[in-house]
Amino acid sequence: MVLLFCRLGKGQKEYVDRRGVHVVVGHYLGDAAFAGHSANLTDEIINSNMYAPVPGDGNDGMAVVIPPHMSDRMRQLYRINRFNLMASDRISVNRTLPDVRKKKCKSKYTDLEGLPKTSVIIVFHNEAWSTLLRTVWSVINRSPRNLLEEILLVDDASTRGFLGKGLEDYIKNLTVPTKVIRTRKRIGLIRARLMGAKKANGHILTFLDAHCECTTGWLEALVTRVAEDRTRVVCPVIDIISDDTFAYVRSFELHWGAFNWDLHFRWYTMTSDEIIKRRKEITEPFRTPAMAGGLFAMDKNYFFEIGAYDEKMEVWGGENLELSFRVWQCGGTVEIAPCSHVGHLFRKSSPYSFPGGVSQVLYGNLARVALVWMDEWKEFFFKFSPEAERMRDKQAVRSRIELRKQLNCKGFRWYLNNVWPQHFFPMEGRFFGAIKHEVRGECLEKPTGKGSLNQPMGPAVLVRCTSVPQLSQMFVMSGEREGFIATDESVCLDSPDSDGSPFPRVKVMACSGQARQRWKYHIGNKTLQHVSSGHCLDLPRDGSIEKGLVLNPCVGSGSQAWIMQSVEWR
Ligand code: LR7
Ligand code: MN
Question: Which segment of the chain is annotated as a signal peptide (predicted)?
Fold first, then answer.
């Protein structure tokens, strides 16, 4: 298992995290940072096809080591695609990868008789040669030929020379029918995928990003699950290809996808109960509230029946939630098949331009998701996301709302309650607001430290209350007066040493569903009682408040008095 961290540089802003991933953008330079390449990266360098593999490099998914005397050049090339292009170019497009599946997977999905074929659709904009072709070769080398209809490469107006005729000539010799489809101008990945889907001949559509590597067995699991039930949208487990060394790193299989209050996609861990339940059936696919976006298979007719993609979405972002909500709310399911592993090259920042501006594009798309699918929770989103609020009135969504009616889709409340019961969104019957210490007049705040999966983690601390409600000080209690106390990113008020130490500290940690994360608020004496130990949330007696709050025997003193200050969320 790998711990997924996100490294943020100074002045960078994380827009969408997904390795939680990493679309960190160079916000400090504004959108101009995306407009092109640094001055000394000449067109000649950018357009040269650097392909010159070193035999054996990167085989078996190993990391590539660049000799020290080449590091200047390496750094220069890194900037073109925001990954180590030199490392990628040294690896064969046919490199070998380990079979990373659980042993049990090897005897699963072996009866391929009568299964339908899939078109593999790969959209790209100015992708590097070696990563694009390694994606293609990994499909060819590690897919059963009788499940593969064709590979469709959709070029979203790339400007790099080698992606022109050079690419067309190259694919003519492949053993799987492969086509390049070109958009006339930049249409963004959403409309590019739609273009590929319309041209596809396969019964099933399988989408991949242009910098992926498929491992043994990846396709059998996806196709089988879709063939068994056409309303299933099936995703592989997404492993990590390092942007620095191109090492293939297997990731934990039991993360499922959802999102945070700002509608950014996130991985969360299953609750401990669910992990235990799954012990007997570790290879069984499991349902996920949302998909990461780039890698999934689905029945082609079903794809179009339920509305394909929202054609008014621009460039990048939001389409993964839109499709997830739509599939779930309109009667389908989204799942992850742990026997299917595909590597994806994660980058720390986005290499290409976002015509229209990063924030406008992303929040415009997210505003559409909220307006069409989220019912009263859209108000929660817009209330706390000024970027989205600014884009709200610009969206024409009538036809998508019409589609939702036609398909007779369920509401967002149903989605939250049934698809994602562990969610931490406000709701009727839940407290939402600030938790304030009565004497100190300070508020509980989400820690800034990071734990695994990039979730916030740290001691529960008090800071000055903000004059207008801010999400960093907003907490949800899963019941009106009793339940878990969570905040954004699925973290909960917890006391990990509450069964041992005499004055256990209180921390904010990943919500786990464990009993020790349950709290009860007593209106009478204003105490917040930790249910499993029976003790109360308190200030540390020794004054070490910076180390966080503690649990003490309940005495109802001033230091144990809390005000649960409700905030209107819609
Ligand atoms: O204008 C564009 N036109 C394109 O054709 C912009 C992008 N693209 C192509 C691009 O070349 C790439 O092949 O679209 C593909 C996806 O773009 P990335 O690789 O920049 O996206 P990402 O990997 O950073 O982001 C994820 O979120 C996106 C939101 O719109 C898409 O859904 C991506 O497919 C998605 N990637 C994954 O889900 C991979 C696994 C991430 C995890 C976990
Ligand atoms: Mn990608």
Answer: none
